[in-house]
Write a structure and sequence with these properties.
alpha+beta; five-stranded mixed β-sheet; about 10% strand
Length: about 500
Amino acid sequence: MSNQPNNLINELSPYLLQHAYNPVDWHPWNDDTIKKAKELNKPIFLSIGYSACHWCHVMDRESFSDPEVAQMMNDTFINIKVDREERPDIDQIYMTVCQVMNGSGGWPLNVLLTPELKPFFSGTYFPKEGAPNREGIKDVIKRTQEVWSKHYNAILDSADQFTDQINFERALGNIHNINEVLIKKCFYELAGSFDNLWGGFTKKPKFPIPQYYYFLIKFYMEYNNKEALDMALFTLRKMRMGGIFDQIGKGFHRYSTDQEWLVPHFEKMLYDQALLTIAYIEAYQASQDKYYAEIAIETLDYVKNNLLDSNGSFYSAEDAESEGVEGKFYLWDINEIRKVAIGDVEFITDVFNIKEKGNYKDEYTGEFNGKNILHLTENYEDLAKKYDLSIDELKAKLNSIIDKLNIARELRVKPHKDDKVLTDWNAMMISAYAKAGTVFQNDDYTLIAKNAYQFIKNNLFDNKGNLYHRYRNGISGINGMIDDYAYTIMAAIELFLNTSDP
């Protein structure tokens, strides 16, 4: 890290401020920065990420905090940092570029642009040094220096052609004819990709995709197709049992690195809690199985306890890391369990699959590391039979032990909290609380939703009725985007359905 701040020091984004003391001469995305790139005729190094992103932190430590790499970047590029959560419009454009160029994407997203903002190279995480079959960031910089000086016109031509291709494909993608044939085709495609063993619709990594579950539940209700409902319910059950769900503090991590929902990247995002809560509520409504209602309530309580500000708004995320180690806050070794769960060690190690050597293999080494991710492999009914308990007795016993583990875990260093308020994500969460208030007849949930909506009305509308996208430290800014308007409308509708207040 540098003693002197760079141009990000006056930004409000927690993510940009994480990079404000990098020796890289970072600039925010604005007209002055782009004008500077044009005046100097230098390529732009655009790096997009978010504050809770594990691999963003890794690349920061390895490369962006390294004086040698920083000097190379400063000599070669105009360097721009973007918070994808503040500027989803920019992120969407260049993520599409990365996916088309490479067949995949992710964060950190790193794209090389001409001064006219046309892409000519992209990738995600780059290590500092290259390895066989993998470029390092230093390799990328050296190669850019060479081609920019020797093949400048070819780069411009390539960037023009690629930009024209992307624009053409995006235009084609806007042509839709939504009808019953298309709806049924969606169902059959989901059914064809369904994982019968673990749920979900991919092998690995595995992301919760709430829109799929909404679609399947509604497909069941429209066409009385039990297979559709079963796919949704099975997936939602497997997610709750897996390590992607925080068995101690509740709430969902962002995604699983494996097929089994076991090993997550540990960041917790507000939008996941909101959209998954709605999915579990709709699963409960369709199935009348209280299990799904309980998961919705657990998730809402996690948000209330960890992401709800005293002003009524919701924070954006909790980090994957604490003390520079991913998942450290959430992982357990057997000795910690023995100290906390005195008298219940055998029970809790069996229920949550805790092993002496650890219960998952480290992503980097491929070896067991003595750490455990608490997860279930048996449902409550089977566990109750195994221990000759009623379901209620089992839950009471489990909750008593979980409370002890939670108290012990609260003594650890907590992950960083991204405290910016985003209109679209807050509106999603308002919809979830309002819907829960309606379905569960819970006035506390309704009040949380009403207070958060009032916060948006008071702080994220301008005097002409236009929305802002972000609020932090008492300052609203960034013009609202289509998601801000769409989800705010959705929140207003859910609140109206709950309260009948016009």
